[in-house]
Amino acid sequence: MASSDKTPGPMPLGDGSVPPGKAMTVTQHIVDKGAQMMQSLKPIKKMSQHVCTFAIYSHDLTRQIETHHYVSRVNQDFLQCAVYDSDDSSGRLIGVEYIISERVFDTLEPEEQKLWHSHGYEMINTLDFHSKKKKSPRIT
Fold first, then answer.
1. pTM score of the predicted model
2. Which residue ranges are recorded for the region named Disordered (predicted)?
């Protein structure tokens, strides 16, 4: 997901729970159902993991959001994630992330490394949260 140290601009009118735009027409629903029957969606079916994490806003470290990463593994050192704000059917796509191993990260040029961030904090806190929720031992 893209991040910035800049404070975001004002939100458009509304509470942000519904994206702007008109409701879908019956015709559009029919087109979508037809597409579902005809298309295989093979890349999406490669997503084999769902990871719920808590991410902190880079411009405001006191705020965090729950994020849902739907992951497909390209190889041992590279993952692709579609990131949603919820795991229900109305979840909105809020970003795309690529996760690479430390081994691959170490091969990047220093300027390229500046564009990446660690997932260590998200993963450790997620594991801690889920282990408390399930009453299982903490994994760090």
1. 0.68
2. 1-23
Region of 50 (left: φ > 0; alpha: ψ -120 to 50; beta: rest) is beta
Do the Cβ atoms of 1 and 95 come closer than 8 Å? yes
In one letter, which amino acid is 86? S
- Phi/psi for 123 (5° steps) reads -70, -45
Sort 132 into a burial class: Cβ within 10 Å, 0-12 / 13-18 / 19+. Answer: exposed
* Amino acid code (one letter) for 119: H
Q: What is the dihedral of CA 42, 43, 46, 52, to 10 degrees?
A: -130
- CB within 8 Å of 48: residues ≥ 6 apart: 71, 72, 73
Per-residue CA distances from 109 to 104, 112, 138 (Å): 11, 5, 35
Maximum mean pLDDT: which of 19-23, 120-124, 125-129: 19-23
Tokens of 94: 């809020």
pLDDT in tens, 15-29: 666 777 888 899 999
State the Cα–Cα distance between residues 54 and 57, nearest whole angstrom. 10
Helix (H/G/I), strand (E/B), else coil: 58: coil
